[in-house]
Design a protein that fits this description.
The complex is a heterodimer of chains A (about 270) and B (about 160).
Chain A lengths: L20 H9 L5 H24 L7 H18 L8 H20 L7 H21 L5 H8 L3 H12 L6 H5 L12 H7 L6 H9 L3 H11 L5 H8 L3 H28 L1
Chain B lengths: L1 H4 L3 H8 L10 E7 L5 H14 L4 H21 L5 E8 L3 E10 L10 H9 L2 E7 L6 E10 L11
The chains are: A mainly alpha (about 270), B alpha+beta (about 160).
Amino acid sequence: MTGFRAEPAKPTSSNEYEHLAHLFDEFAALDPNDPRRAELRDRLVTGHLPLAEHIAQRFSGRGVAKEDLVQVATVGLINAVDRYDPGRGSDFLSFAVPTVMGEVRRHFRDTGWLVRVPRRLKELHLSISAANTELAQRLNRAPTPSEIAAHLGVSQDAVFEGLEAGNAYHSMSLDEVLSGDTENLALGDTLGEEDAALEGVENHEALLPLIRDLPERERKILGLRFVHNMTQTQIAERIGVSQMHVSRLLARTLERLREGLTEQDEGTSSS
Amino acid sequence: MVRKQYSNYGEVNVTEWEPPPLHAHNDIELWLGADLVHLPIVRSVVATIATRADFDLDAIADLRLAVDEACSTLITRAIPGSKMRCRFTAADDELRFVGTVRSDSDSTPSTKSFGWRVLTTLTDVVDARVSTDGHQGHRVDIELAKRRALLDVPGAGA
């Protein structure tokens, strides 16, 4: 706000909504047909809108338009206002935050596919992903499609279909939302170690700055695969994401490096 | 436009490259314009072949990345407007890929590049060849092979 009025600084903590708290008691006590209910509901939803915007903001940059996220979060907020029961003792915010976040997550789950994939295939893909993780632990290596088929009790063709559906999966989607915290990565290996291992590579001078620019998790996965020679399944276990997600991240990272190197080549040859 | 003078190359090459005969059961061959926009198609084809041959999921993912890398290398060397040939051979113990383009340059793809490191990490055999066979330009091949991991499947010896 460019505030030409001398307003006090906008509070950002939960007391921003304190003045609305008493409305919930009144709202809950009213008869469902009381016209005053609709008015209170409006005030409660509008008053808490910044909360929906704040949550939408946290999920932005993941391939879904900000306005769509705000809209979805607002639907979540309306549901929260309708379902909240002040008699239970917890305050509205601790009820509303998970409700609104749940609505946004569901939106990613349902629409975060680049190509519209039938729900049956999405579910199949998710169970293949789970079977993959479970079998990899048991076998100590990545399973084959026929092993996954036997494990799930479905045909091999169904597994092929499910794997293909996964390729239509938006690469910035559900996995990203559910495992997006890079902070909790244990980054034991230092960047210096990876730099040294790449020294024999002729274009390493051009490569290193590109690698340094990668997000921490992508850089880590790249190092584990191409310097430490770990399999995708081992990397998945180490990083705490699915093998399929490691695969997508690696594909994206290699593409990015290739583009970076090509641009530099073009830059030097034209000068 | 430079592009235009090459526009008939691919068609001429189709008849003159004399690719090895296709083995009906194992071989799949794909001809595409040597253009990066086609990469997703080649990736999908190798993944589908590897999946149907029941390679493990790590191997399938590695093949996808390796073929992507090999084809990008080939396409960036190819004569603009020419074609790329991709040959896939699924045998009992390995999946083999050979990508071929015509190039103006006779330099072999470097084995010291990061791209080469990517290919050797992802597959078991990597080979790049440049030959001059009297036709226009030079022929560049990149060959990859990924062996099937030895699985301790119960009853596999039967």
